Amino acid sequence: MSNRIITISREFGSGGRTIGKEVAAKLGIHCYDSELIEKIAQESGLAKEFIAEKGEYASHGGWLANAFSYGSSYNGTSVQDYLWKIQREIILDLAEKESCVIVGRCADYILRDHDNCLKVFIHAAADKRAERIVKIYGETMAAPEKRLQDKDKKRKAYYHFYTNMEWGEIQNYHITLDSGVLGIDKCVDIITDLYQMRDDSRCRR
Amino acid sequence: MSNRIITISREFGSGGRTIGKEVAAKLGIHCYDSELIEKIAQESGLAKEFIAEKGEYASHGGWLANAFSYGSSYNGTSVQDYLWKIQREIILDLAEKESCVIVGRCADYILRDHDNCLKVFIHAAADKRAERIVKIYGETMAAPEKRLQDKDKKRKAYYHFYTNMEWGEIQNYHITLDSGVLGIDKCVDIITDLYQMRDDSRCRR
User: Fold this and answer.
1) ipTM of the complex
2) Which residues from chain A sit within 8 angstroms of residue B168, using beta carbons?
3) What is the mean pLDDT of residues B49-73?
4) CA–CA separation, A21 vs A103, rounded Å?
């Protein structure tokens, strides 16, 4: 049987990444989020030339995550398309090598033909998320709810651009959870139990 | 503490009603679907006058469910508004009297201020649902997938008309489950476990 993967898509501030890390820890598998995927990209040499060329811009503030900030092209391909390809290869490669949790990065779409993948979406009410990003992420701003909207707008646009599908649409996920109501711990338990229950999992659209 | 309620909203053919009944049976509580709610309405006298007036139309094929088929008014109120009010009262009353499962009927919206309500949405891929409505519901037709779309379109329109919200939008539910991938039994287990886990449940929007 293929490696068993969990993909976690999430609204900003809903604790999706925390949930991903805790699920992975409970299951004894790795959790790959955008930071780690970027690190892999850098170390793998896939992006060495890119980083060398883009220099300060590439290494500033999560270059993979900020793909749309780069307007120019690289080697005849647009920068964001190049970055998309790198990340896609990394994710396919990870799923080939090991059971793991992957947070964000359109992994649910990239692994749509994977035959053993649980697709999860985490969300919460705006006030809960605003509280979280200020208290836990340490963001201090006058309008945290505006920040939430902007981040999710970007995620939605990025996702739609590369997948032609709608980020956050119920039918794209096997299970979605309101972490603000259920709590982080319960979400972790539900996902972990489900992962362990699944003998015959499908990740088809 | 208030009675504990589960509301189940579902795509047509996803087994939502079956899941509701099995969850209720496991938990030793009642499950109220549109059939039962109509029966209550008839027995309660709330709709006696209406049925007496509408006669054959009222008793044909689930009059509550077919609210939009009645174009005329009743006692100065449109028929569908009248039926909406009846069903709303019944649902509020049920939640007041007992812990239970309620399938459909915009119950998630009607009970939005209830402080102990788990809101669930069940869905499945169109091919799974088409298979189900033919095999299990005994529907025989040339285009089951068209039937699915029509039923869900009506549900969506009905929901939006009375709630001003979007039926099937992730943020409206505490948990959503793909019954076609997870299977009916797993959905029942997940919901039952969650219901039993919840000490401090909220049903807020």
Assistant:
1) 0.84
2) 170
3) 51
4) 9
**Three-class SS of residue A64?**
coil
**DSSP assignment string, A6-19:** EEEEE-TTS-HHHH
State how far the alpha carbon of B99 is from the alpha carbons of B2, B25, B93, B115, in Å: 8, 12, 11, 12
| A169, A174, A204 member nearest B182 (Cβ) | A174
Kindly list the residues from chain A whose CB atom is less than 8 angstroms away from the CB atom of residue B194. 182, 186, 190
Closest CA to A101 of A111, A64, B89, A185: A111
Interface test with B, best of A19, A111, A170, A172 (most B CBs within 10 A): A170
Q: What is the pLDDT of residue B81?
A: 80
Secondary structure of residue A176 in the 3-state scheme: strand
Kindly report, residue by residue over A55-96, the tens digit of the pLDDT. Answer: 444 444 455 545 545 555 555 667 778 778 888 999 999 999
| Regions of chain A with pLDDT less than 50 | 55-61, 65, 68, 200-205
- Which tops the pLDDT comparison, B188 or A42? B188
- The two structure tokens encoding residue B111: 């009970």
Q: Which of B5, B120, B128, B175 to mutate to test the interface with A (most CBs of A within 10 A)?
A: B175
Nearest CB among A177, A201, A205 relative to B175 is that of A177
Tell me which residue in B171, B177, B202 faces A175 most closely, judged by beta carbons.
B177
Mutation pick from B8, B171, B202, B205 vs chain A, by most beta carbons of A within 10 Å, is B171
Cβ distance of B182 and A204 shorter than 8 Å: no
> Which helix or strand (DSSP H or E) is residue A32 part of?
strand A30-32
Question: What is the per-residue pLDDT for B199?
Answer: 52
Place of tokens 């039994």: B185
